[in-house]
Write a structure and sequence with these properties.
single chain, mainly alpha, about 60% helix, globular, 7 strands, five-stranded mixed beta sheet
């Protein structure tokens, strides 16, 4: 695609990290570290701790990156929730900084860069993923860094940056496969709007080769295990996850993830990518958002899958915002923006961070159900321990759970109350079983009556799962049953008990 020389010249020029942007990023890190102790482990964090004790190149539902981090932080400070979450805070701070950098790369001045960083800093998606150790935390970071590097490579013509793009994507693909969608979306965008010369650039394809080489251990593992990631994706699309939403909510949900009152900024950024002649060389990134929005809507993806491009759109919208502030009635406009940032910061903190007592978090859980998954795990393990105490002292038992959150909770809190390690058929736990045969009684946690009747003998309810905060979550109200044993050997029934999602 031919691009006028004057537009290329306007698009070039040095960009440096603004001190104000850095300070905003640091403020986010400090806020996240200060609140890292709140509530308790998320079910996924409990799972990551367990996966960190079974290191592999891949798992049915993720790559090895986060389990490696979980194992490292657990080795440094065993049992510390703050230490476990520590890597996520600087990751969120880096997302804020990349958003500011993107504003600069997209021809925004110093104030536009700071505005972009401030908008990202109060976004619910940044605060919540920065609060937990999560695959989505580092996915958002990888998408932000990749977007920034791609825009800079196009803007400056520094072809060697494409090698760094490949390295970042490759590391991100060892977290989860979502960066492959980003790469595919940008490639499709290039085909639609150009500059198509990039499709003939050997550095671009060398970068792709680097990403593929780094990703190859995950691909080999998945292929050897029958591609369980596809089954997990199907379960998510069918609503089998706490954060699953109906397909039609994928795009509207972006408004909530960035903050409703600040949504006009990233929407303006999307429009600008298509309309501003000076940004024509990177218009393909706007097409990437459109194509991925259609893809994730059609496939039933989670809303946060698309949120990885919000830093790019916020960066693109920062210059128009800066221009709006310089219009008439500047003080009024500045006050409106300050109020919007303050409202978004307060709402984001309440929705994403443990600023309310757990007993008062019911309204938050109604908006963000994942918060409920950080409450009540010690109570669940205490109920399992009470069921265990009804068995003869010293007699062996098998603890079998419906999902990896329950199993991870038993593994984390159980040793302190004399419980053995848990087994589950869910995701990677299904690879780590079955229990040894021997006829030991089974404490079945969270299993529906149909499963108990089909695979276990003489089951009777022993406890009902609840939590001291009185918060409704995925575990509250489930039953803990004590069964005489499995129907047949564990090895025989194990394939039927395994499931992914």
């Amino acid at each position: 695609m031919w691009v006028p020389r004057r537009l290329v010249g306007a698009f070039r020029g040095p960009r440096a990290v603004d001190v104000g942007v850095l300070l905003i990023g640091v403020a986010v890190v400090v806020a996240l570290v200060a609140t890292a102790w709140g509530y308790g482990y998320h079910r996924d964090e409990l799972y990551f701790l367990a996966a960190g004790q079974h290191l592999a190149w891949a798992y049915p539902d993720q790559g090895p990156l986060v389990p490696v981090l979980a194992r490292a932080m657990s080795a440094i400070a065993p049992g510390s929730l703050i230490a476990l979450r520590l890597p996520s805070a600087p990751a969120a701070g880096a997302i804020v900084v990349f958003t500011g950098l993107l504003a600069g790369e997209l021809r925004g001045g110093r104030r536009a860069q700071r505005l972009a960083a401030a908008v990202a800093a109060v976004a619910v998606i940044v605060l919540f993923t920065g609060h937990l150790l999560s695959t989505s935390t580092f996915d958002l970071l990888v998408w932000s860094a990749t977007s920034c590097l791609v825009v800079r490579a196009v803007r400056t013509g520094a072809d060697r940056l494409w090698l760094l793009v490949g390295a970042v994507l490759g590391v991100g693909l060892l977290n989860n496969p979502l960066p492959a969608f980003l790469a595919a979306g940008m490639l499709a965008g290039l085909m639609i709007s150009g500059p198509r010369r990039l499709l003939r650039n050997r550095h671009v394809w060398l970068g792709a080769a680097i990403a593929l080489a780094l990703w190859s251990p995950w691909l080999v593992w998945q292929g050897a295990h029958g591609w369980p990631q596809l089954a997990v994706a199907g379960s998510i699309a069918a609503g089998g996850s706490t954060s699953s939403t109906p397909w039609w909510q994928v795009v509207p949900f972006q408004v909530l993830l960035a903050g409703p009152v600040l949504a006009p900024i990233w929407i303006a950024g999307l429009v600008r990518l298509f309309r501003d002649p000076a940004l024509r060389p990177v218009r393909f990134t706007g097409w990437a958002w459109v194509l991925l929005a259609v893809t994730f809507t059609a496939t039933g993806g989670k809303p946060y899958y698309l949120a990885g491009l919000l830093p790019l759109l916020i960066g693109a919208g920062a210059a128009p915002l800066d221009g709006w502030l310089t219009g008439g009635r500047r003080r009024v406009r500045a006050a409106v923006l300050a109020g919007a940032l303050a409202i978004s910061a307060a709402a984001g903190a309440v929705i994403a961070l443990p600023v309310l007592p757990a007993r008062d978090a019911a309204p938050v859980v109604a908006v963000n159900p994942d918060v409920g998954e950080t409450i009540g795990w010690p109570d669940l393990v205490a109920a399992v321990a009470r069921a265990r105490q009804r068995q003869p002292p010293g007699a062996p038992v098998v603890i079998f759970t419906a999902n990896y959150g329950e199993a991870g909770a038993v593994d984390r809190y159980g040793p302190a109350v004399g419980l053995p390690p848990a087994y589950s058929g869910h995701n990677a736990y299904g690879l780590w079983g079955p229990p040894p045969d021997g006829g030991a009684p089974v404490i079945a946690v969270g299993l529906p009556p149909s499963v108990l009747a089909a695979y276990f003998r003489d089951c009777a309810p022993a406890e009902r799962i609840d939590n001291s905060a009185g918060i409704d979550n995925d575990e509250r109200g489930r039953t803990i049953a004590v069964c005489a044993g499995p129907r047949g050997s564990w090895a025989a029934i194990w394939p039927a008990l395994r499931h992914v999602g």
